[in-house]
Amino acid sequence: MKRKIGLSVVFVIVIAYAVGLYNDYNAVQILLKSHVFTSGKITRCKFLSKTGGALNMYYEYSVNGQVFTDFNRTQIDFSDCEQYFLSRSFPVIYNPNEKDFSVILIFPQNFKRYGYSFPDSLKWVLKYGEK
Q1: What does the domain layout of the chain look like in residue ranges?
Q2: Which of 13, 80, 92, 130 is the most buried (most CB within 10 A)?
Q3: Could you tell me where the DSSP H helices lie in the chain?
Q4: Which numeric CATH code is attached to 35-128?
Q5: Which tens digits make up the pLDDT trace of 101-122?
Q6: pLDDT category, 26, cuts 50, 70, 90?
Q7: Distance of alpha carbon 73 from alpha carbon 55, whole angstroms
Q8: 10 Å Cβ neighbour count for 2?
């Protein structure tokens, strides 16, 4: 009986992970097909203690006077986020049909994922890069 419960739990975890991967893939595909650039500012760094050191980097961006808030999960140090990234501006891409659907572009892999070159002006972030 315990084995059936254990297998059920593993099955649920695998399904949840697969759904998460699919949603991430789908989100990237939507933004690849149609996006617009704007600028966003890091407004908050929130340490996620139950994730092994990840943090959410919250940012705001404005489209036609309407302010949107989103976040990006990252592996940079919390103290680096607060000291070097907080209140800094970075490029944001958003879907023009769903303006609250966005991604902030900070690290080279973010730019590469959406087909853009990493700008020289952001080379300073490399020393704080994701682990």
Answers
A1: 1-33, 35-128
A2: 92
A3: 2-33, 78-80, 108-113
A4: 2.40.50
A5: 899 999 999 999 899 999 999 9
A6: low
A7: 6
A8: 6
